[in-house]
TrEMBL record:
It comes from the Bacteria. The gene is cobQ. It comes from Pleionea litopenaei. The keyword GTP-binding does not apply. This is Cobyric acid synthase. GO terms for molecular function: ABC-type vitamin B12 transporter activity; catalytic activity.
């Protein structure tokens, strides 16, 4: 079956379910034997992944690629914006940093990137039977309409049909759907071919009168009502999910929520491990008692050092270490554990230098050229050794003047071999540039043993991720009118 057009999923709000819906449909169509690929014209997120060619894309598109049994590719997300402050974003096009945009010049993104977006989409159309397209935020943002490349601006340019999704769990689902529809231009309204309602709880009979009204009022079908799926263990696009963990293991792990925390999906295998109780600690709260404190990555490391001290977390960390606790820093968190972080060219913020937490004997300099690598290698942690896999995304280069025990020995996809990270002499602290560490079962088991002193059974996170994608696809098979959606995407008149 050849599907010549893309099908675009747009949402009434951020976090309405666009990313998960595209992932589930990708998995469903792939299981039906179709050649399918995900696509998001423009993403704004601090969770990202590295492609085999050394590019960077949104984490959600990497998950969607996984659902299609594809390796992540920069064409799946040609434009990625990574905010370093409320007024500034790094612009990544086809996987590489090309610019920094201030808020007042954000309108230039269309001129800067839209041709590249269309290039990627056309390449995917030539390679796959169907391209499932994810919008960004809401298409009804009046102030962004003239320079939109992520929602209707893209859909109008490529003439693709749109399905609008809304999250009923937020409340006001009919107002969201009708209000969003009515704020669009006549041609954009015509492009919306129907609706999906997400995260419904309870008996569908109680919703039926509203569905009938919506279909009559707008003369467009509801393609399905998706039930709320509890404990869905899939990568979040950006927002931290803190309300899903349904267990309290005996290994206490705390993660301070930095202002520009990045790749917090690193912690999903820990968050869902039955022996772990992982807590994201927001500003205003103490890190408190823990077996392990993990300092995550960030898009603005020097600003995070200021925040860390303002919150008193540096004192919490020292008290934690005095009582024998363990500390791990990942990427920006690793840099923070060192003696200094300098940014002479203003890569992440204003140029300058900041004192680190002085827990590892390294100094970091931020440089414009970002390191984007997929890695394999071996690690050494206390008496434990083993294999690791993961990826690197960082601008900093960390050096040391005195002998240093490395955490790992790595090989990247370009054939380079090098040491990574550092382990303290006291064996309580280590840091690394590697993201995705906990997805490797051997390392996850070793880490938890290092923390608890007990042998802990591991979990295979990639296997769990695929099981969850199949669970999602099964749900869509049952609750969505897939044949109608396929017919829609085949309609040359859309």
């Amino acid at each position: 079956m050849i599907l010549p057009d893309g099908l675009m999923i747009q949402g009434t709000t951020s976090d309405a379910g666009k990313s998960i819906t595209v992932a589930g449909l990708c998995r469903l169509l792939h299981r039906r034997g179709m050649s399918v690929a995900p696509f998001k014209p423009q993403n704004m997120a601090l969770n990202s992944a590295v492609t085999a060619e050394g590019g960077e894309i949104g984490r959600a598109q990497a998950l969607q690629a996984f659902a299609c049994d594809l390796a992540p590719h920069t064409d799946f997300n040609p434009v990625l914006l990574k905010p370093s402050s409320d007024q500034r974003s790094q612009v990544i096009i086809h996987g590489q940093v090309v610019s920094e945009l201030e808020a007042q010049t954000f309108g230039s993104i269309k001129a800067l990137a839209f041709d590249r977006v269309l290039e990627s989409y056309r390449r995917l159309q030539q390679q796959y039977d169907v391209v499932l397209i994810e919008g960004a935020g809401s298409p009804a943002e009046i102030n962004l309409r003239a320079r939109d490349i992520a929602n209707m601006g893209f859909a109008e340019a490529v003439n693709c049909p749109v399905v609008l999704i809304s999250d009923i769990d937020r409340g006001g689902v009919f107002a969201h759907l009708v209000g969003t529809h009515d704020l669009l231009s006549p041609s954009e309204q015509n492009r919306i071919k129907g609706f999906i309602i997400n995260k419904f709880r309870g008996s569908l009979d109680l919703l039926q009168s509203g569905l009938d009204w919506l279909e009559t009022y707008r003369n467009k079908p509801v393609f399905g009502v998706l039930p709320y799926l509890p404990h869905l263990k899939l990568d979040a696009e950006d927002a931290i999910q803190v309300d899903e963990q349904d267990h309290r293991g005996n290994i206490e792990i705390k993660v301070p929520v930095l202002s520009r925390i990045s790749n917090h999906t690193d912690f999903d295998p820990l968050r869902w491990h039955p022996k772990v109780n992982l807590t994201f600690v927001p500003p205003g709260s103490s890190l408190g008692k823990a077996d392990l404190i993990i300092i995550p990555g960030s898009k603005n490391v020097r600003a995070e050092l200021t925040l860390f001290r303002q919150q008193g977390w540096d004192h919490d960390l020292q008290r934690h270490l005095r009582f024998g606790g363990k500390v791990l820093g990942i990427c920006g968190g690793y840099q923070m554990l060192g003696r200094s972080v300098s940014d002479p060219m203003g890569v992440e913020s204003t140029a300058g230098s900041s004192e680190g937490l002085n827990l590892l004997p390294i100094d970091t300099e931020l440089r414009p050229n970002k390191q984007l690598k997929q890695i394999t290698g071996t690690f050494s942690l206390g008496t434990m050794h083993g294999k690791i896999t993961g990826y690197e995304i960082h601008c900093g280069v960390s050096t040391h003047q005195e002998p240093l025990k490395s955490f790992s020995q790595l090989n990247d996809q370009f054939g380079d071999h090098y040491p990574d990270g550092a382990v303290s002499d006291c064996q309580q602290i280590f840091g690394t540039y590697i993201h995705g560490l906990f997805e490797h079962p051997e390392f996850l088991s070793s880490l938890l043993q290092w923390v608890s002193g007990e042998r802990v059974q591991s979990i295979n996170w990639n296997q769990i991720r695929m099981q969850e994608l199949d669970r999602l696809a099964d749900c869509f098979e049952e609750h969505l009118n897939i044949d109608a959606l396929l017919k829609l995407s085949m309609d040359q008149e859309s």
